[in-house]
């Protein structure tokens, strides 16, 4: 079996892609659209004439022809890049995944389409080498394809020109200082933030919500609600996980609030924690850090909904990977000597080990000089990343996360050396089960919340106990070992 035949069997076969796309885009299944044939640089598909795809005259609805043409041309283009999963369709990994989008189209309707219509797209073989080279070099590909729409007798019903954007997923996220993120990465970034906002908004529908957040639904908007409904139907655990982590961080802030002078939220997204906890944070200066695009999006929502925000909130545009965290904070008025609480929420599992180590070391350096500083962060288990001996429920959850385009790439192991290496010690470990009753799903075992402090600012006997636990065969104590279940 040659390389293309393997790719056809495992990734882009007509039956497989019909199933995967129908799952990702329900309207395709509703109309009966299906792929018939895929070759290298070629795709042929069928849009049946039926009550779901036709208008009152028994003619294909014009825009449905365009939709069918979009996916036919897109698969013809994707077939050229071997073994690369398509974001939103296949499961992706930290190294793989293509971002494929239709960015413009032009349709010309030649005659009414009153029969089953066959759609085809082909890419000249002479272009394959150049397109593949550009893709694997991380360059942006903008490619226009001609798509034909014909009946069974070969009579042309329509023809279209479809222009696609294609780029390696790992080249979307710009980790280069001083450069703007790509439009597609910015879209993914905002969509993810709106999804999480909607997960917090769902908590308000419960009889006994873990927190009151009246702004999350507004922040999520219609897009967040649509994507939220989809995620909730596929992965119901995600709402409990977001609710539990929100409540855990909020509770820690309330406990420490009397002595707290500064709150630093890393990757603040569309969370309105500063407003939700304004009673506890009345004597506290708040620094919200995120990429410039997210800062702009949040301020746009604040203006749209006329949300009143405290003057003590400072929003700082910051790339957590490439920028110097200490310099950014001090530039905007952070005082290294005052008590501070850092929140590092919903980020660690999407950054690499080196990126997490860089951030943790920077935070630890700031906590060392703070009179009473703490870090709260959430993590997944390292076993999730290595995929070793995972229960079926966890495997299914991770599969769906990867298919949605956001695979976990970093986890913390049972021994928690990552914290000790940064001179931080654990004051508290919690999990989703500490907040959600009757949550027996296996997936909750992989998700933890840590409250940490620099070892120079904690009683010496506690440090000794922690170091002793790291040196034992059992790692952390039984009541803390939430991963080894």
Could you explain how this protein is built, in words?
The chain is an alpha/beta fold and 485 residues long. It has two domains: 3-171, Thiol Ester Dehydrase, Chain A (Roll); 232-470, Rossmann fold (3-Layer(aba) Sandwich). Helices cover 38% and strands 20% of the residues. The protein contains 16 helices and 13 strands. The protein has helices at 3-12, 14-24, 26-31, 62-78, 128-136, 183-202, 216-234, 237-256, 273-276, 292-304, 325-331, 353-369, 382-386, 392-403, 417-420, 460-470, and strands spanning 34-39, 42-47, 98-109, 117-122, 141-150, 156-168, 262-266, 285-290, 313-317, 340-344, 374-380, 424-431, 447-454. It has a seven-stranded mixed beta sheet. Helix 6 crosses helix 8. The protein is elongated.
Beta percentage is 15-25%
Mean pLDDT: 90
Number of helices: 16
CATH superfamily of the largest domain: Vaccinia Virus protein VP39
What overall form do the CA principal axes indicate?
Answer: elongated
Task: Give me the side-by-side strand order of the main sheet.
Answer: 9-8-7-10-11-13-12
Query: Rg from C-alpha positions?
Result: 25 Å
Order of helices and strands: HHHEEHEEHEEHHHEHEHEHEHEHHHEEH
Q: What level of helicity do the residues show?
A: 25-40%
How many β-strands, per DSSP? 13
- Number of domains as seen in the coordinates: 2
Give the second-level CATH assignment, the architecture of the largest domain. 3-Layer(aba) Sandwich
* Fold-level CATH name of the largest domain: Rossmann fold
CATH class group of the largest domain? Alpha Beta
What about the largest sheet? Answer: 7 strands, mixed
